[in-house]
């Protein structure tokens, strides 16, 4: 096979050679094996780099501008950035909290959450990181603010900020903030602080709200008519009384802040608004909103994360995570003067004391490296970076700006857009939204957690590895037959590394900072539409479809969860086998009220205890009614999720039985759709939400995706590089919808998988050879490894996805399907999704 990944990303020459092997204790100046980015963006960072093993969370200059302090997920480093020499490094053995580093007189202060514990503050004392204040709250903390001998630490999940005395570590008090506080700044006299609030202000009586999470006491967040969070604020705190004196509106998801005290200006990066709010701190009000839009005709997604301001107040620097760049803004005019390229997802920046350099952290840096061996690349092997960049003159800034535009495949605003006339000749995948389409009905089917090789690695005509197959043709004959008869997609990647971000990417082609950091801990796990703070400003594809007059029906997706004990699954299976009708058995209320008019209330949302045969039964009855009525929705979104499995939990369905159930349900649904009167104008697009660290010889995020339509290139192998955004873009073009974010705008649409000549031959499903009723044995019947695996599976939490240790589950699934004496293969992950926040097993 040709190297299909190579054109996807281009790294600067500074990454060509490494002087010595990288370890936790020893960052490097360069890497030879940069990771690949699924958004088609390239990375050509400016400045002098340092590449660290693990995500990078914060940076600050030290005792002078020749040294920097860098916080990553395991270490605190003191570095001579010019030479790359490590002056000291301290292992902190804790989970850093966001941008949890500030320096004061060359001394670093760190916010960190002790593993499975509470946020605290730490300070360097010699060669150790000494606790300054402990037990300051629950779950993750936000970014630190420091001034006047005081440190402010927002506690995101608890809507409060803690004030600590710098000298003694004494907790002086705490103040209530807005919803989901993130960043803080403090005045030089220590009397006033500002805290940014992702979730904005508390709602007033009668205002539209939605709960931020499924908990009984969840915050009621202001939302718009699509269920998207609609408020961002900054809280002004009086540190004498520990009271919030003012709540000042900002853009959505206010993130990092910079305070120009001499000029009484506070600059806030609005992550979900592609803007910067300017607050007059003397008048205590917002006076300006600076839109960051250097590109022509681009929707949301630039994702401002942090700000820094020059000493004279004339220049503002804004880290833009979505375009991997720093925007340089003239504060007088508000004009974007240019862009400076960075590593992957810049998340923090600070100016040197002489104002001549920027130190920039990129959380994901150069992409994932390897674990244990170079050929075993792994998603958790993050390699964040710090770049120290000399502030450019005008010619250099112009060159940098051109590079950023090229990296993002986007035209600058100075490029005039050509006027176009809609093409009236219908095509399966139109060239532009608004052109005539051969497709009127899209069925979007979402499944859970499989890699390509686990399922389709045994298909000879694709780029598969048969030795890694776990659920082959005997278990998934319909998936195989559909891939063979229609089109085999062997280079398709899930953009999410877990369900919390996977469902964001497949629904909205974006992921906001709240989901990335993650800010939802202690509130939600937002795979299921239960938290409006996780939804991007562009909204979901089904909301966009409805806005433009298309009809939509939602089955299970964004429907919350339905807790059912795993052992009830066999009961449901037996009732289904006996012929019971489940079409009126469920009455589901979606978490977001705006979904109710087009949500199938009788269809179960996420649970693996209800077999997918029941889901298929419910949907097929609706399809029959649509045929009678002669009307079918333009967009049908359906969740069938039992391929997630219960592991080897005793006396529940085996993994193979659950995957076979999922496959048979898919086959029945597709057959019925292809034999319906709507088939001549239909496209069925099927994808996994993520691949959950499964084993794959190309990459752990390569996943199973299918495209089924009369216009599919029958029997074709399409090895074009695709991702979740590609599928969304294809649906948008078919239905005449605009891009939801810059990521689907620049994605490869799936045109090579389609033709404009219809083949109306319907699909006929096949019965898996695998028994759908096969059960895991009772614990008393097991010994050795199978017993240990059964005990581990029984202890796992199955009511929501990803509440189990994915690495351990993958090994259990491997051995249960391939045999307990078959060695578990090394995990090879050379590519991972943008902004993925996969949680290490030890943190679950």
UniProtKB/TrEMBL annotation:
<protein>
    <recommendedName>
        <fullName>Phosphoesterase</fullName>
    </recommendedName>
</protein>
<dbReference type="GO" id="GO:0016788">
    <property type="term" value="F:hydrolase activity, acting on ester bonds"/>
</dbReference>
<dbReference type="InterPro" id="IPR007312">
    <property type="entry name" value="Phosphoesterase"/>
</dbReference>
<dbReference type="InterPro" id="IPR011048">
    <property type="entry name" value="Haem_d1_sf"/>
</dbReference>
<dbReference type="InterPro" id="IPR017850">
    <property type="entry name" value="Alkaline_phosphatase_core_sf"/>
</dbReference>
<dbReference type="Pfam" id="PF04185">
    <property type="entry name" value="Phosphoesterase"/>
</dbReference>
<dbReference type="InterPro" id="IPR015943">
    <property type="entry name" value="WD40/YVTN_repeat-like_dom_sf"/>
</dbReference>
<feature type="region of interest" description="Disordered">
    <location>
        <begin position="200"/>
        <end position="220"/>
    </location>
</feature>
<feature type="signal peptide">
    <location>
        <begin position="1"/>
        <end position="21"/>
    </location>
</feature>
<dbReference type="InterPro" id="IPR051200">
    <property type="entry name" value="Host-pathogen_enzymatic-act"/>
</dbReference>
<keyword id="KW-0732">Signal</keyword>
<keyword id="KW-0378">Hydrolase</keyword>
């Amino acid at each position: 096979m040709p190297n299909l990944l190579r054109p996807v990303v281009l790294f600067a020459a500074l990454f060509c050679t490494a002087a010595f092997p990288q370890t936790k204790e020893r960052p490097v100046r360069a890497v030879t094996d940069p990771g690949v980015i699924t958004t088609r963006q390239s990375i050509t960072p400016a400045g002098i780099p340092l590449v660290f093993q693990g995500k990078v969370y914060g940076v600050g200059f030290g005792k002078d501008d020749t040294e920097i302090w860098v916080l990553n997920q395991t270490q605190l480093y003191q570095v001579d950035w010019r030479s790359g020499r490590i002056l000291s490094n301290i292992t902190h053995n804790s989970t850093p909290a966001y941008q949890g580093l500030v320096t004061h007189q060359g001394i670093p202060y760190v916010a960190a959450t002790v593993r499975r514990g509470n946020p605290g503050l730490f300070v360097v004392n010699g060669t150790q990181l000494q606790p300054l204040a402990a037990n300051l709250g629950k779950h993750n903390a936000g970014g630190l603010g420091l001034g006047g001998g005081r440190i402010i630490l927002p506690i995101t999940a608890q809507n409060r900020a803690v004030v600590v005395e710098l000298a003694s570590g004494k907790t002086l008090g705490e103040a209530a903030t807005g919803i989901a506080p993130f960043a803080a700044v403090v005045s030089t006299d220590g009397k006033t602080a500002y805290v940014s609030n992702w979730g904005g202000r508390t709602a007033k009586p009668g205002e539209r709200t939605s709960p931020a999470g499924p908990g009984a006491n969840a915050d009621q967040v202001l939302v718009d008519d699509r269920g998207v969070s609609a408020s961002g604020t900054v809280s002004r705190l009086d540190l004498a009384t520990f009271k919030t004196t003012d709540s000042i509106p900002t853009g959505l998801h206010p993130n990092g802040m910079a305070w120009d005290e001499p000029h009484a200006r506070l600059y806030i990066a609005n992550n979900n608004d592609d803007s910067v709010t300017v607050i007059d701190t003397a008048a205590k009000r917002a006076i300006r909103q600076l839109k960051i839009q250097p590109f022509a005709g681009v929707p949301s997604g630039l994702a401002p994360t942090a700000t820094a301001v020059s000493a004279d107040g004339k220049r503002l620097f804004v880290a833009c995570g979505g375009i991997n760049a720093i925007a340089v803004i003239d504060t007088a005019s508000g004009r974007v003067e240019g862009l400076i390229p960075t590593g992957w997802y810049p998340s923090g920046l600070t100016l040197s004391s002489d104002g001549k350099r920027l130190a920039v952290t990129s959380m994901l840096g150069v992409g994932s490296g390897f674990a244990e061996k170079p050929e075993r690349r792994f998603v958790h092997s993050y390699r964040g970076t710090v770049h120290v960049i000399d502030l450019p003159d005008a010619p250099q800034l112009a060159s940098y700006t051109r590079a950023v535009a090229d990296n993002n495949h986007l035209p600058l605003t100075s490029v005039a857009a050509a006027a176009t006339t809609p093409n009236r000749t219908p095509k399966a995948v139109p060239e532009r939204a608004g052109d005539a389409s051969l497709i009127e009905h899209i069925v979007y089917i979402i499944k859970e957690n499989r890699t390509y090789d686990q399922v389709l690695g045994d298909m000879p005509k694709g780029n598969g590895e048969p030795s890694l197959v776990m659920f082959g043709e005997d278990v998934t004959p319909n998936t195989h037959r559909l891939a063979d008869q229609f089109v085999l997609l062997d280079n398709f990647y899930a953009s999410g590394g877990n369900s919390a971000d996977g469902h964001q990417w497949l629904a909205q082609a974006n992921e906001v900072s709240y989901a990335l950091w993650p800010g939802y801990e202690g509130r939600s796990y937002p795979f299921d539409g239960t938290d409006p703070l996780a939804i991007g400003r562009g909204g979901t594809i089904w909301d966009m479809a409805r806005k433009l007059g298309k009809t939509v029906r939602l089955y299970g997706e964004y429907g919350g969860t339905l807790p059912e004990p795993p052992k009830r699954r066999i009961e449901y299976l037996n009732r289904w086998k006996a012929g019971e009708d489940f079409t009126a058995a469920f009455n589901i209320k979606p978490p977001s009220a705006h979904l109710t008019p087009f949500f199938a209330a009788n269809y179960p949302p996420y649970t693996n205890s209800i077999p997918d045969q029941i889901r298929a039964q419910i949907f097929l009855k609706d399809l029959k009614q649509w045929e009678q009525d002669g009307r079918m929705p333009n967009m049908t979104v359906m969740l069938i999720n039992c391929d997630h499995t219960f592991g080897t939990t005793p006396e529940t369905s085996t993994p193979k039985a659950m995957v076979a159930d999922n496959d048979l349900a898919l086959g029945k649904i597709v057959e019925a759709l292809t034999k319906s009167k709507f088939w001549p104008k239909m496209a069925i697009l099927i994808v996994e939400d993520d691949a959950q660290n499964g084993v794959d010889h190309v990459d752990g995020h390569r996943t199973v995706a299918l495209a089924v339509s009369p216009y599919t290139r029958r029997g074709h192998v399409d090895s074009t590089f695709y991702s979740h955004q590609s599928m969304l873009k294809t649906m948008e073009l078919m239905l005449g919808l605009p891009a939801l974010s810059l990521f689907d705008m620049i994605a490869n649409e799936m045109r090579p998988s389609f033709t404009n000549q219809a083949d109306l031959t319907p699909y006929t499903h096949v019965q898996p050879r695998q028994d759908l009723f096969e059960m895991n044995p009772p614990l008393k019947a097991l010994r050795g490894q199978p017993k240990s695996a059964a005990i581990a599976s029984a202890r796992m939490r199955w009511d929501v996805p990803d509440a189990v240790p994915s690495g351990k589950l993958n090994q259990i699934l491997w051995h249960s399907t391939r045999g307990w004496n078959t060695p578990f293969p090394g995990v090879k992950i050379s590519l991972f999704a943008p902004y993925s926040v996969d949680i290490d097993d030890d943190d679950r």
